[in-house]
Amino acid sequence: MTTNKSVLSWVDEMKALVTPDTVLWIDGSEQQLETLRKEAIQTGEMIKLNDEKLPGCLLHRTAENDVARVENRTFICSRKEEDAGPTNHWMDPQQCYKMLYDIARGSYKGRTMYVIPFSMGPVGSPFAKIGVEVTDSIYVVLNMSIMTRVGNKIWDVLGDSNDWVRGLHCKCNVDPEKRYICQFPEDNTIISVNSAYGGNVLLGKKCFALRIASYQGKTEGWMAEHMLILGIQNPKGEIKYVTAAFPSACGKTNLAMLIPPEGYKKKGYKIFTVGDDIAWMRIGPDGRLWAINPENGFFGVAPGTNAKSNPNALASTKKNTIFTNVALNLDDNTVWWEGLDKNPPENAVDWKGNPWNGKTSSEKGAHPNSRFTAPAQNCPCISPEFDKGAGVPISAIIFGGRRAQTTPLVYQSRDWNNGVFVGSIMASETTAAATGAVGVIRRDPMAMLPFCGYNMGDYFNHWIEMGQKLGDKAPKIFNVNWFRLDKDGHFQWPGFGDNLRVLDWILDRCDNKADAVETPIGYVPKPEDINLEGIEDEVSQDTLKEILTIDKTQWQKEAQGIEEFYKKFGSKLPKELAAELDGLKARLQ
Ligand code: GTP
Ligand code: MN
Ligand code: MN
């Protein structure tokens, strides 16, 4: 336990508020965790799975109305409404504290309060930040112990410092009408009530590592981004690192763990996963941009994960993993989800806890947003740098979304400010119909729409300023789109492992080794510079040319959409981005 006065007095304050019977300080020991697992198994909160096939693995089901993040109940509580900006829900902090305290008051009665000290980032790393989460849920304790670095070692690093994030979680009675996920960036505080679902209650993840940290990054001169971090080793043994921001469900976890195509494997290419969801980036002593993954595990979507789509993710879930809202196979006490294999269990229990026959039932066995919480160290391709505090130097930053049309397979921005523009106009479509009808476009700048903890206009400006500091050492900025559809609604690019072919061009561009064609939106590869060896049958030269084409009429329409979107930000829109839009419009004339 700690002697830190700010921690002790806050924990006392929380204790007086929620009035638990007992307080348990999480020390990070395996022994304490095992006691908690046993207790959760005994009360039925968790189900122990097959010890031979899934050693150390547990299953948990949440309430049926509590299965996902809730953006409409997520608030940024800055003192001034303007500081939350046009893309966030805002509440006055004093009013919000009062409302939340009224909900939380007495809510731990008869139960235990767990105090979890945790580090986002390797303990003691110059990138890392400390948090303390108070919760009444063992599920939260066990998940936090996978997703973050937890225990007494945190107190040693924290010392007497007051620089730590406070997180209060109260399960209450999981009433969706009183569910609130509130961030107070100016107070380093998070309060989450009436939920017991991962994304809402593992406060280290989206609440801290993105919403609070993005605000800290702005004030302290660094960046917290919704990005994977990937190392690519070439046959000479050189490793280059890239980060990539795609909106949720657009393939970060897939790209972060990709399996190189056969031809690349033979040549000696290797992939190393540093992170699959969040990157914290700082300018290093060498003036370059360096990144760490602040997390210690993967909180991945289960459905669709299988031995073909993402074998590395699947392998990561084979031990010491917590499954949330998947189906339970009663025959061998293992788990199943849609898309795992073509052999659903007949004698099973669905995510709601009802008897379920996967062969005959029309209901889903697993919830579409069911998840696995897996230790990063389980991943076969985890980077040797993952646990080191120094981070990895970033050569390229990649933005991307799901666009049936308009956006080419890949393009490079003209320079940093143009790259910030490219990130700011990121958009994703709801899946287009088979007829090729264009889906509804949702703008999701830098994939941070649900996660930016302050005014997004100021966030754009922070990006511009980071570029000024980085100067000619700044990573090059690219945009990719794996999701172009043909007239019949088929994907034109095979994606997944074959995305390495695009990364290959991107890294060659960073080394000035590949040529490009200048277009109004940026630099596009010459078709002959994308290596199609081994997939010539799947992707014809004509298809490749088509998905690298910029259609001026579509882009003129796109420019109108951007102009409309930019109006939201009023005077907060950086003049640099307004100039970029003007430049694009002029080049499209
Ligand atoms: P969060 O973890 O929620 O932030 O999302 P994520 O970005 O990690 O998304 P995830 O990797 O879970 O997204 C998976 C979805 O994207 C699945 O439907 C995949 O089939 C699809 N996907 C991933 N990569 C590709 C690709 O290269 N091509 C195509 N066509 N689909 C892909
Ligand atoms: Mn993911
Ligand atoms: Mn995410």
From TrEMBL:
Co-factor note (free text): Binds 1 Mn(2+) ion per subunit.
Assigned keywords, A-Z: Cytoplasm, Decarboxylase, Gluconeogenesis, GTP-binding, Lyase, Manganese, Metal-binding, Nucleotide-binding
GO cellular component: cytosol
Main location: cytoplasm
Pfam families per record: PEPCK_GTP, PEPCK_N
Residues the entry annotates as binding substrate: R69, Y197, G198, G199, S248, N369, S370, R371
Source domain of life: Bacteria
Cellular compartments annotated: Cytoplasm
UniProt: Mn(2+) binding residues: K206, H226, D277
Stated role: Catalyzes the conversion of oxaloacetate (OAA) to phosphoenolpyruvate (PEP), the rate-limiting step in the metabolic pathway that produces glucose from lactate and other precursors derived from the citric acid cycle.
Subunit structure: Monomer.
Protein name in UniProt: Phosphoenolpyruvate carboxykinase [GTP]
Gene that specifies this protein: pckG
